[in-house]
Amino acid sequence: MKRMIYIVTVIACCYSIAVAQDEGSGGAELDKFKPGEVWLDTSGRAIQAHGGGIILRDDVYYWYGEDRTSRQKTTVSCYSSKDLYNWKFEGTVFKQEDLASDIRTNTFIERPKVIYNAKTGKYVLWMHLEQGGYHFARAGVAISDKPMGPFEFVSHTRPVKYEFDFPNPDPDRQKELGGTFRDMNLFVDDDGKAYAIYASEHNATLYIVRLNEEYTAPEQPLAENKTWARAFVGKYREAPAPFKYKDKYYLISSGCTGWTPNAADFAVAENIFGPWQSKGNPCAGDDSEQTFRSQSTCVLSVPGKPDSFIYMGDRWNPRQLPDSRYIWLPFKFDDNGGIEIKWLDEWDLNYFSK
Ligand code: DGJ
User: What is the number of domains present in the chain?
Assistant: First the structure.
């Protein structure tokens, strides 16, 4: 009986995704966020932008993320919006075939992020490049003149080589190639300097690395605690989501349990290179120990509302990755510099006017 219920549920679930994927007829205008529900784009297809991030350029938001409909051949999709509720699919801006020829056939893309470089006028895409077994663990970089791409591949690297207590055996080949590059994010500071923040040392430690003027590689020469730093050493934090408020740096991250959700951590630092002080789990209420069954991907500052932010997370569905859902929840800083993220079945941007 249990098996029967399971089969019926899976069929119903696949059917609803198929309907959402195929509709293509233009959905009704949205004016609310409904965390965990299927989110359709303006053509009526389910949004595919997992593990993603958002930038704002000339009053238009661009949301980049993993399109998981092609399974192991993830591509980078781009959506645009003026109001954060209604998203127009702008196309696939980077795909496996755009990678260097030596890795094109067997490499997939996770957690792509794009930032704009005001000095060069280029859009710069960084991504976690991976292969079966999860030992490839490299950074991929690509650039474009336009937010909608196409992005041209620049390089794939392990950005930092550092002598730590290498595991033995080390299938990630870190002594030879440098520390692993997995879950990642980018952050552009008020002075225009950009940083890559990523899970390294086989996910045990986060690396924070200042980028060169072009945002395409680490600033050289590398100098520990000056141009890059190790943070949360040995703490196995991943899914880093950095943001800034009143001259302090903040980071929401997840634990390291594959696709399974776990408790988030909220940390603060006076300097982006640390020391970072953990303030514990920012979530409250039912399911808060599982971050409402999600994993952080990004924190979005709400324009014109300096104390207001949106937590963006992925509710991964490992059996059906394209049907992973988006968990967006609002939060504000309290007078003591604390935050609390609570579950809401639905909400809109008026939340921040209260
Ligand atoms: C957790 C990461 O955050 C995801 O991006 C993905 O790499 C999964 N692990 C794979 O298990």
Answer: 1
Mutate to test the pocket of ligand 1, among 183, 257, 293 (most ligand atoms within 8 A of CB): 183
3-state helix, strand, coil in the chain (%, to 5): 10, 40, 50
Q: Is the CB of 272 under 6 A from ligand 1?
A: no
CATH at residue 209 = 2.115.10.20
pLDDT bucket at 5, cuts 50 / 70 / 90:
very low
Predicted confidence (pLDDT) per residue in 271-323, tens digit: 999 999 999 999 999 999 999 999 999 999 998 898 999 999 999 999 999 99
Q: Is residue 203 assigned to a domain?
A: yes
d(CA 90, CA 224): 40
End-to-end CA distance of the chain: 49
Q: Are 15 and 23 in contact (CB under 8 A)?
A: no
Residue 302 burial by Cβ neighbours in a 10 Å radius (0-12, 13-18, 19+): middle
Domain for residue 5, yes or no?
no
CA–CA distances in Å: residue 345 to residues 29, 30, 292, 351: 18, 15, 11, 13
Model confidence pLDDT, tens digit, residues 167-220: 999 999 999 999 999 999 999 999 999 999 999 999 999 999 999 999 999 999
Q: Does the beta carbon of 51 sit less than 6 angstroms from any atom of ligand 1?
A: yes
Q: In which domain, by residue range, is 279 found?
A: 18-353
The answer to whether the CB of 258 is under 6 A from ligand 1 is yes
Task: Give start and end residues of each alpha helix (H) in the chain.
Answer: 2-22, 174-177
For residue 246, the one-letter residue type is: K
pLDDT of residue 94: 98
